[in-house]
Amino acid sequence: MKSKIRTEKRAIHWYEFLPWLFLASALALTYWIWQNEYDAEYVETERVFEQQIDETSHQIIGRLKLFEQSLYSIRKLFDSSEFVSQDEFNQFATEILHSRLSSGVHDIGYAQYVNFNQPSTYAALDAAFIQSVKRLVDQSQLSYAPVIYAVQQGTQATSLPLFNAFADKQLKANMESAALQDEMWVSNGLKLDPQHTSDLVSIILPVYSHDKKQTKVEGGELTGGIRGWVYFNLRLDVVFKYLLGVDENPSIRFALYDGFQENPSTLLYQNTLIGSKPPQFSARYLIDEHGENWVLHASSLSGFEGMLNHKHSTMIAIFGLLGSFSLAGILFLFMLRLRTLESLDRVNKRLKFSDDRWHFAVEGAGHGAWDWDWDWDIRNKKISFSTGWKRMLGFDEACSDEAIGGWRDIVHPEEHWTVLHGYKQA
């Protein structure tokens, strides 16, 4: 007959879940701290990126203001005299071009306002020059803005072919707006030199002969005190190189677009080509200055993105994982110790119960027994004697086991050798 082995179910205590609860909580806390630091590193790098594009846009605006101050100084030259000769203008413009503020200026010029219905607009011009202006006359146009003075950067002042700035309708509208509002205006480049028209931007400032408040539009033409316009033609690539510095491997790509549409046809300048992979950071900055809307678009390149190495968040993750598993391991060992102590306590209770039953059986039958204390004093050969054994041999029940002496002392002399022989064989 097969006997069934009786198994006892072990009770599960709360502290057995403690290591796993701690590990789950520590890992969740580590992830939360890591995620916050990871996001903080990204936000900080993004802040640095936006700060750079903000500084660049303000540098562009600041550069325009410096050019505006130079234009006002030229206007004062015209305000101080009824007529400014070409030599006077060339000398003054050459001094500006040789100053440190002229980086990016391609040429400086002056366009005279001429309306043949208003003789005062050309009365101060030389007769020969008036004849040249008259050759520009178009039956559909009464007013003109011939560029009569111009000095280019890096060249000696020379006479340039006469050019009518009003031939460009958009340029004419911008020049008229500048005259009516008495402020600097940004416009497409004046096409003085066909080889330098793709990246030229003009900044224009009106010049008045008398009260500027009298300037107005009548019959589609300017009337009143407008005298002409002084202007700078700017090379944006030179201006940007001056602002950003010359870098063959820039960390940020800057692109300047004319208007709000970002496409190749409106691209005015870019310091490098688009990267081979999508940028991690990009930003747009609207520059609305002096009648012109530009969009400065910046996108990060590999050189800048290398700043985002997540060093601190990685260290937090590593130390967090090590700390979580280490402390969870310590708690697991502590839990095992508690479980072991519980098992030992349970075994000791069973042994005590079994030992009590054995002693009860021996004492109840009136028998005596002795036994080695194998667990603790085998080396000292300590022997334990039952109460019945002591009583049978005439010892007091309260007599200690040590006082009885060795078992050899109480063996009958005739049986001493036989017992000793059997003991040695055992």
Task: Lay out the secondary structure.
Elements: H1 18-79, H2 86-97, E1 105-112, E2 114-115, H3 127-134, E3 143-144, E4 147-152, H4 169-181, E5 185-188, E6 200-208, E7 216-218, E8 221-223, E9 226-235, H5 236-244, E10 252-258, E11 267-270, E12 282-289, E13 292-300, H6 302-305, H7 311-365, E14 370-372, E15 383-385, H8 387-392, H9 401-404, H10 416-425
Antiparallel strand pairs: 1-4, 1-9, 2-3, 5-6, 6-9, 7-8, 10-11, 10-13, 12-13, 14-15
List keywords for this structure.
426 residues; five-stranded antiparallel β-sheet; four-stranded antiparallel β-sheet; 10 helices; 15 strands
- Per DSSP, what share of the residues sits in E-state strands of 2 or more residues? 15-25%
How many distinct beta strands? 15
Q: Give average pLDDT, whole number.
A: 79
Radius of gyration: 52 Å
Sum up the overall morphology in one term. rod-shaped
Helix content: 40-55%
Strand and helix order:
HHEEHEEHEEEEEHEEEEHHEEHHH
Query: How many individual helices?
Result: 10
Q: How would you classify the helix and strand content by structural class?
A: alpha+beta
Low-confidence spans: pLDDT under 50, at least 5 residues? 374-378
The main β sheet shows up as: 5 strands, antiparallel
N-end to C-end Cα span: 35 Å
Spatial order of strands in the largest sheet = 4-1-9-6-5
